[in-house]
Amino acid sequence: MRLFSRPVRMSRKPTKTTRTGHYALLFARALVVGIFLSWGSRVQAADTSETFAVGVTDVEWYSGVDRVEGGAKDRTVFADMMLGIGLLHRLSAYTGVVMQGTGAFTEGQSSQYMGLLGTPLDTDHCDLDLQLDVSSGGPSQQFELRPAFELNVDGDPQMRSWGVYVRAPFPVYGRKMGNGRTHATFHLELTVGAYAHLIDGHQVLIEGDAACHPEPEQGEQRYEMGGVALGYNVEVSDALELISQLYFDVPQAHESVSTGVMLGLIGTLPSPLATNP
User: Residue 155 domain-assigned?
Assistant: First the structure.
């Protein structure tokens, strides 16, 4: 089962003077339960999470196709646009919208999201990020509250060599029962990833995800494997990064193998508080 959706972006830890950090695999990084485009969460890249420079300094666009191997009616085409805002040093906010088309473009749906990201622990080689994501929409117009944390270890203070990270989202959402009653429920997600720099400005990433459902629905497994995401990112300039990702679903039970592709652009705008080193 495919759990998370995310684009793969450059792991780049900015200097303390500019602090132009980006998002990527938002603890779950998109980021998520469902198909490659997870409703109730934004699309995210396989990568660590970083806060933004103060001001409206981050614009991200992702688009892709899920179930590439299927027919036109089985494929899902999606797009996500996000705006990131640095509120304070190590505290950021973001908002965006996700749209998808299915059934050979005969059906369309959308989901909106917003959230906060903070970094209470920020050292040269170890960071702890906390996030609170809120979203609604999708096929059932479901509302979801998504707290999460991420711990990453970097071989280089500027994230220019290698690194590993663990991300754990805790989605809380509503469920409709057969008798018309409703109640709130939750599940746990876990993402483990790693990145490495080949040459300056070029990065490869790999990550896998899984989930645990303490209260599984009928036909839903308590423990589920998600899939594996492979990413290749290119930093064109200080203001533009190109994202590419290939995702392989890990089939379970009666599922079949599924793949997805995603491309993205991440633009970094100048911060009004930026200073020269």
Answer: yes
167: domain CATH number is: 2.40.160.40
Residues 65-90: tens digit of each pLDDT: 998 888 888 899 999 999 999 999 99
pTM (2 d.p.): 0.80
pLDDT score for 49: 66
Mark 219-236 as b/e (b = at least 16 C-beta within 10 Å).
eeeeebbbbbbebbbebe
Give the chain's domain count. Answer: 1
User: Does pLDDT of 234 surpass 60?
Assistant: yes
pLDDT over 60 (residue 46): no
Is 53 a residue whose pLDDT tops 60? yes
- Mean pLDDT confidence for 195-218: 91
Domain contains 257: yes
Domain that holds residue 68: 55-268
3-state SS, the chain, equals CCCCCCECCCCCCCCCCCCCCCCCCCCCCCCCCCCCCCCCCCCCECCCCCCCCEEEEEEEEEEEEECCCCCCCCCEEEEEEEEEEEEECCEEEEEEEEEEEECCCCEEEEEEEEEEEEEEEECCCEEEEEEEEEEEECCCCEEEEEEEEEEEEECCCCCCCEEEEEEEECCEEEEECCCCCEEEEECEEEEEEEEEEEECCEEEEEEEEEEECCCCCCCCCCEEEEEEEEEEEEEEECCEEEEEEEEEECCCCCCCCCEEEEEEEEEECCCCCCCCC
